[in-house]
Amino acid sequence: MQKSNRGFELFDLTGRVAIITGGGGMLGYQHAATVAGLGGTPVLIDISTQGLQKNSALLHAEFGNEVLSLEVDITAPESVQASLVEVLERHNQVDILINNAARNPMMEESAGVDFSRLENFPADQWRLDLAVGLGGAFNCSKAYGGWMAAAGRGGVIINIASDLGVIAPDQRLYKISGREDHLQPVKPVTYSVVKHGLIGLTKYLATYWCDQGIRCNALSPGGVYTGQNELFVRNLVKLIPMGRMAEPDEYRGAIAFLCSDASSYLNGANLIVDGGRSVW
After folding, report:
1. Contact at 8 Å (CB) between 144 and 82?
2. CA separation for the pair 100, 219 (Å, rounded)
């Protein structure tokens, strides 16, 4: 009798439905492709219809199935709840939630002032960034995680944090030659606050629904090549022991592990995949 390969079976997501927020973005597509490639059913959620259409078409071309994509404002609880109703009407279940949506705005200057700096950072920008990155994860966890807990099927929640959720940004990376120090652009404060907060939310949820079989872990990726300027990349890779940034598809293995039974005893953890940057 031929024995099955238990190692491969651990990663099988056949019959499981995965909600992916920020599903219209670059990493949203990679997460969805990972789920689909393992036999699961990805559902894309985003406020960007253009991004949803693009990624849905790519997934359909690659895997052949029609992908449910929903325009959702994750900062609005009623919009999230309505999306849950639509998902259940189509698929009857939810097994995985990947809180991937976030804002990473490029701050514009006005009259020589860089608004990314803490002294100039707009209060409205603070509220919006936290509303999406943290509030959105809270709203989606409450709706989708709450359904999974009540359904008694178990489930998985993954919060996409960042290496900047465990270390501070090195603001030297963003310096512009010839500009005075107080006018230099920086990584906005909200990015660090949101990513650190997601790790805290992960630990809270890991214990909150544990009795209902809901596991929650975080993934903290490092930088990804997305056409950044050459000087930035050259300086950043000096801070990474592996000497390079990640390719967009290099987090698929981590997502496969966290979504599947391969990580069945992992709960409340933060998986850092950053080429070793946070070790230095």
Report:
1. no
2. 10
Q: Is residue 7 part of a domain?
A: no
The encoded tokens of residue 165 equal 């959720």
Domain that holds residue 128: 13-279
Cα 109 from Cα 185, distance rounded (Å): 9
Q: Is 8 among the domain residues? A: no
pTM, rounded to two decimals: 0.94
Domains of the chain: total: 1
Hey, what are 169's tokens?
A: 């940004």
Residues 121 and 188 sit within 8 Å (Cβ to Cβ): yes
pLDDT digits (tens, 9 = 90+) for 179-215: 998 889 999 999 999 999 999 999 999 999 999 999 9
